[in-house]
Write a structure and sequence with these properties.
The protein contains 10 helices and no strands. With about 300 residues, the protein is mainly α. It has a domain at about 1-125. GO terms for molecular function: heme binding. May interact with Ccs1. Keywords: Chloroplast, Cytochrome c-type biogenesis, Membrane, Plastid, Thylakoid, Transmembrane, Transmembrane helix.
């Protein structure tokens, strides 16, 4: 049966992701390793194909679109991050950021496959609250929001790391060498112009967060409508809902502060970096509690 390929798809996708991380790291450290970076890109493309195939097979086997539990959502998030990573690489070709995003992607996928209980991974029965057309709308939009906002926050963290440790010989030698293509719209060429690096990291972070915020807004809105349909109330102050609101407020503050010149750079990067922690509390932390209306994502109580 086609489901017999699932273990092979899991192992091969994990392996190709791991190899891609190695290639990106090698390319960042060694200026002459441009070809190795193309191998990393190829590995990401192969991984995306394998993971999407895994999701399709799971959907056919279980008879629903695979968005129903934490394992499935993390696999979907991995696929989204790989696609965003590839898009970023096509337009920006930044070694350091690609290395960081590939590590984050591998970490998420490894968590999904090694740390989530098997019984949750193999759960094939949808709870009544999940048997709704809103499932695809709400979860897909939220995963897109998490993916784009996580990338934006990673860029903010990169900004702060370089800003705070800019006198490090290692960073001066490797971290600012993001690109060797002087024809890019936002060039980060091999140069000692550190202010240019910081400016571009700041701008890229802003663009990804600006892209993810509307998805987050739409996801919260669709979730409220779905909650009213399922539980008779638009808002129940469930832990997941509360932290989703906190996440929304944080990024709304970030975007609002960016309107002022004095809040560009380090100040906005600090707020954006905080978003990385808040997202993981919202997405994963509240599931570990096993409490609230969203407890189906991890444990049942």
């Amino acid at each position: 049966m086609i489901s017999d390929f699932v273990p092979l798809l899991k192992i091969s996708s994990l392996l190709t992701l791991f190899i891609s991380v190695l290639f990106y790291g090698y390319s960042m450290l060694y200026d002459s390793a441009k070809k190795k970076k193309s191998y990393g890109r190829l590995g990401m493309l192969i991984s995306s194909f394998l993971i999407i195939s895994l999701l399709i097979i799971r959907g056919f086997n279980f008879g629903y679109i695979p968005f129903s539990n934490l394992y499935e959502s993390m696999v979907c998030l991995t696929a989204i991050l790989i696609i965003l990573h590839i898009i970023l690489e096509l337009y920006q070709k930044q070694y350091g950021v690609q290395f960081l995003t590939s590590i984050m992607t591998l970490s998420i996928y490894s968590y999904a496959n090694f740390l989530i209980p098997i019984k949750k991974e193999e759960n094939i029965f949808l709870l009544p609250a999940l048997q709704s057309n809103w499932l695809v709308m709400h979860v897909s939009v939220m995963i897109l929001a998490y993916g784009t906002l996580l990338l934006g926050s990673i860029l903010s963290i990169s900004f702060l790391l370089y800003k705070w440790f800019e006198n490090s010989p290692f960073l001066k030698k490797h971290f600012y060498m993001f690109s060797h293509d002087s024809n890019l719209s936002l060039p980060l060429v091999k140069t000692n112009n550190e202010s240019l690096l910081l400016e571009n990291l700041d701008l890229l972070s802003y663009k990804f967060i600006s892209l993810g915020f509307p998805f987050l807004t739409l996801g919260i809105f669709s979730g409220a409508v779905w909650a009213n349909e399922a539980w008779g109330s638009y808002w129940n102050w469930d832990p997941k809902e509360t932290w989703a609101l906190i996440t929304w407020i944080l990024y709304a503050i970030y975007l609002h502060l960016r309107m002022g010149k004095n809040w560009k750079g380090t100040k906005s990067a600090i707020v954006g970096s905080c978003g990385f922690v808040i997202i993981w509390i919202c997405y994963l932390g509240v599931n570990l509690l096993g409490k609230g209306l969203h407890s189906y994502g991890w444990f049942t109580v």
